[in-house]
Amino acid sequence: MSSTPGRAVRRALTAIVPATALLTLAACGSGTTPSAGTSQAAAPGSPGLTAARTALKTYAQRPTAISVTHPVGKPIPKGKKIDFILCGVQSCKDLADFFTEAAGQLGWKVKQVATQGTPESVQAAYEQAVRDRPDAVVASGFPRAVYSKQLAQLKAAGIPVIQSNADDVAGGGISLLKNGPTDVGVQGRMLAAWVVSNSGAKADTVYFDLPAYTILKPVKDSFAANYKQWCAGCALDNVDVPITAVGKDMPDRVVSYLRSHPKVTHVVFSLGLLNVGVPAALKTAGITGKHIVVNVGDAQNYQYIQSGLTDGAMALNSHETAWLQVDALARHFTGQSMAADQEAALPNMLVTKDNLPSADGDFPIVESYQQQFKALWGLS
Q: Helices then strands (H, E): number in the chain?
C-alpha cells in the first residue's frame, strides 16, 4: 500500500504525462463563471438535478464487461518483440507491467526502455527502438513533437506505434491512441454529475486545474459545460495551478483560497495528486464541511475516501488500457485493423466510500477483464 504523499505524486503524474520534464510550462491564471460565493441554486427536483443524478447512477456502477467483443478469430503469432518506452515515474511502469503481463499470455517478449522523462532521454529511447526494429513500439504520454523524427523513421519501417494518455490524435505514424482528448471528456461529465447530485444542485464550486497538462483541458471543458447545464445559477470558479505547486505548497494554496471564499461548498481537482496533503491542511486550518472530488484517483486518494477525508474520485483504467493495447496488436499481427480497439470505450467509474473496490492501490475497473480478453484471443 502506498500512503506517502511523495509516492502518490510520482504515481499519479503518469496517469497523464510527465510534462514537467517534456514541455515548457505555461503561466498560470484563473477564471470565474460567475464569481464564487454568488451561487443561485436550482430548485430541488429540477430537470438538471434529475439528469445529473441519472448520469451519476450509471457512472457509480462498476462495469462488468470490456467494450471490445469481436474475437481476433485467427491464430495469433508468438515470438513478437515489443519495445515499451517508459516515462520515468511509477504509474507508467505499472502500465508497462500490465502490458507485459498481457503480452506474455501470447508468447511475446517486451523490452521496457527506461527514460527520465526529459526530451533527450525520450529521444534516446526512441532512437533505441529504431535500432531494435521491434515488431511494435508502445509508450505513454509523450508529446509527438519530442519524438517526431523517430516516429517518421518507425513509420517508414512499418513499425506500429501505440500511445496513451497524450494530447494527440491517431495517424501520422501513431497507429492507436487511447485516453486521448476524445476519450477523457467523459471524466469531466462524471465529476459534474457527482457535484450537482451531492449538492442537490446548490453547489458553489472551485475547480483546481493544471493547465500544463493539455490532455486535461477536455476534462475541464466537459465539467464546466455539464455543470452549467445541470446546475444553472451555481457558482463555478476556475483556478489554474502551476506545476511547481505539486507536492509543495498546493495544500497551502487550497487553504488560502477557501479562507477567502468561505461560501464554497465543493472542491474539484483535475488530478488526484493536487489533493495530496490537502485534507490534513484543511483540518489544521479548521476548515470543515467542504466536499472534495478528484479526477484520476490513486492509492492515496482511495485511502482518503475510505477514511472519509475525500468524497469521490474518477478511477484509473490502466489495467484495461494495457490489455486493450495488446488486443490491438494481436489484430494487427493477424492482418486486421486496430479500428475496433481505437473505437472501443475504456471503462470508467466514479468511486465513493460506498462503492470503492479497494484502497490498496490501482484496481481494475472491470474485475474479469483478463478472462474476457483471453476469450477474444482464443485462450479460454
A: 14, 12
Find the mean pLDDT for residues 346-358.
96
- How many Cβ atoms are within 10 Å of 354's Cβ, its own excluded? 8
Give the chain's length: 380
Confidence (pTM): 0.85
C-alpha separations of 286 from 248, 267, 294, 310 in Å: 20, 16, 21, 16
pLDDT at 141 over 60: yes
The strand pair at 235-240 and 30-32 is best described as antiparallel
Give the Cα separation of 198 and 200 in Å (integer): 6
Provide the CATH number for the domain around residue 219.
3.40.50.2300
Give the range among 87-101, 219-233, 295-309, 335-349 with minimum mean pLDDT: 87-101
Grid cell digits, residue 194: 457527482
CB atoms within 10 A of CB 57: 11
Determine contact, residues 239/30, Cβ cutoff 8 Å.
yes
Tell me which residue range forms the domain holding 44.
5-62+183-314
Are residues 192 and 175 located together in one domain of the fold?
no
What pLDDT was estimated at residue 8? 53
Question: Using CA atoms, how far apart are residues 365 and 346, in angstroms rounded to an integer?
Answer: 10
Q: Which amino acid is at 190?
A: M
In the chain, the number of structural domains is: 2
